[in-house]
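[09:14] KT: can someone run the structure on this one? pasting the chain below
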Amino acid sequence: MEHFTAQNQYGKDGPKGRRVIKKEYPFNVAHTQQYKAYSLHNFRKIPQIRALPEKLKFEIEVVAQVFPFKTNTYVINELIDWNNIPNDPIFRLTFPQKEMLLPHHYDKIANLLNLDAEKEELEKVVDKIHEELNPHPAGQMEYNVPLLNGERLSGLQHKYRETVLFFPSKGQTCHAYCSFCFRWPQFTGKEEYKFAMRETSLLIDYLKKHPEVSDVLITGGDPMIMGSRSLRHYLEPLINADVQSLRTIRIGTKSLSFWPYKYLHSPEADEVLALFRKIVDSGKHLAIMAHFTHPRELGTPAVRAAIKRIRSTGAEIRTQSPVLRWINDDPDVWATMWKMQVKLGCIPYYMFVVRNTGAQHYYGLPLERTYEIYKNAIQQVSGLARTVRGPSMSAMPGKVHVTGIFDINGEKVFGLNMLQARRPDIVMQPFFAKYNPEATWLDELEPAFGEKKFPFE
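[09:31] RB: done, structure tokens below
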């Protein structure tokens, strides 16, 4: 039985300008908390919420009509600093903020709530707002859904030659929702917005007909919301199938951040880890694609014990997150996070640009600022943390990497590169865009040096 005395959050070495919070307590990895979720219908029952101003609680109710909202006891009790509301980064990450809605959208919803409007009337307005928020960016519906024998496979996406995304139907929720999430439409309850598949058999059939695919990414939602039985239902047929070309199984998850008790000592946790070992023992490489947005998510004894247990199975943990205004838009925060990840045995993988969907206007930053955050952060870490690639835009043509800002023959330009692409022949092909200090996304850039189009057009 292992016991820890841990310093929660940053400790004395926190990034400059950030509040330092110390919390020491004993932790027993044999103990698991009781998971309890909170959302729009019951969030006012959270003890810490009761002390907040009514105005703030009403704002949460308004925004949660449009953006899915869900949190849980671990986030509430172990991650959020309730003495720093509303500015606490984890509070902003998990609770709806008024500014996530454009002013005219917010006013429409607030007025309807104040008038006790009928549910149907409210839903019509919400539906219209959803349509205006670019619910499926980067051609996900139009170009990513593949065909098998002439049938659309609505639970798969195949954008890049080597990688297929699989959306198990039982994994279409999360332990808590990130307020910035580009997959917010998955959680609205609208079937036309969902990617989901009940069985693995169609995925296996697709892989056998596409030997170019070496990697399957299990995603959602969050696949790790599923119990061990459901995980086995989806994963065991995949590892037992005779698909010689499949070499890597990836699992995209925020569970280490929002519910690390998933992996701590309990019969359920042991079964999940046994499944991970089975995947590794089958000869497949297992990569846990962990979403860590802020160093505080790496600071609790529970997450550190969970990381240790996952790594003991032979699985690898890679980390990723977008740069988010109000939450991690500081190079010191990123440098601290990458150092912590390396120390814990994780591999920094991607720094993303906030996608052009949902509340991008609130969380997004100019590309120039995002690049400066990356540059100033990467300068503070050793080579082991410089595995992280970014800032990267997951756009329609692929992952567009901002490599720098240059002055070439008297013209100021953005340097860009394709880290991944629908067309493999343009991967790692550098190109340039006119400097635009206000640009936050690829569609706001124009080719430089008199070129008529970018390589992907």
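[09:33] KT: thanks! Residues 3-132 form one domain.
[09:34] RB: yep, looked fine to me
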